[in-house]
Amino acid sequence: MKDYYKILGISKTASVEEIKKAYRKLAHEYHPDKGGDEAKFKEISEAYQVLSDKEKRTQYDQFGRVFEGNMPGGAGQGGFGFEGMNFGDFWQNFEGQAGMNFDFGDIFEDFFGFSRPGQKAKKSKKKGNDISVDLEMNLEDILKDQKKKIKIKKWVGCSRCQGSGAEPGSKVKECFTCRGTGTVQEIRKIFLGNIVRQVVCPQCKGEGTIPEKFCNVCGGEGRTKQEETIEIFIPKGVDANQVVKISGKGDSGRRGGQNGDLYIRILVKPHKIFKRKGDNVYLRVLIPLTTAVLGGEIAVPTPEGGEIVLKIPSGTESGKILRISKKGIPHFSGYGVGDMFIELEINVPKNLTKKQKELLEKLKEEGV
What we know:
- The chain is α+β, with helices and mostly antiparallel strands.
- It contains eight helices and 15 strands.
- The protein has helices at about 5-10, 15-30, 40-50, 55-65, 85-95, 105-110, 290-295, 355-365, and strands spanning about 130-135, 145-155, 170-175, 185-190, 195-200, 210, 225-235, 245, 260-270, 275, 280-290, 295-300, 305-310, 320-325, 340-345.
- The radius of gyration is 35 Å and the shape is flat.
């Protein structure tokens, strides 16, 4: 006996929505038109057809089978056949089943790219493409808000036709190929049988209209490729690989379509002495042996470029870490600042003078 729940990868208590979601995912993966396994797809479809129907699911849960012999394709007893099937009949057979409370139109349009018979695609202006660029910054740059100017080559609205694609003075008429619908029908044969597929009209690109005379500058595109300088705002505290979105600064859409968006990916250059971890910065500092033993003061650099005087307590061991509050990176949210952590490393002298060696020998004699 086939385990339909296992086939769909769901539990026996799964809701109708969970069954539908699992079916969508697996059908995308195994559909033959997308290079998938036809036998596996049939098995997935069989499981879905049974478990999505309340009565059939009840029978299956109780008896491990469905007592029905008039299923599409003559599968019978829980089978699910597609061979030789007309897509229009397929739709009527399934939507006529009792307890079906889902929309096959959504499923098939999402999976296979065709619309339900008689359904017209909606005309819409195609949005321009989004643009992604990388912006390299120094660690010092992210300590405060920045305004940067970048140059990008992108589609911009045509100044001559104002994005319509039509030569000024000429009219925009209904597309002769699709009669203004924006789509044309395509009959296609797959293993299910013959289906009618709604595809974007190749003449008007789905808009339903076409200029009588194309613009002399953009050739009917409604946009042209140009280099544009864009000023962008980078908030302080931004981290490496963080993305800043600028709405409407991507490519202009074709023939007056909505602009895409611009995405700026921040790349922070490695610093020579500082390492960043979140909003904190880390620094390793060498201190003289005498300072470690007796204590003293040293000058320590900060990310801003200045210095602070740091007191070293006597008897400091190598590896000791000191924390300086609010000398790190500003929080990206705008509230607070990270800290700076300083790891002290004792600089053991290697080339000693004769006098230094004599002094150390005396200290040795004293048990130091």
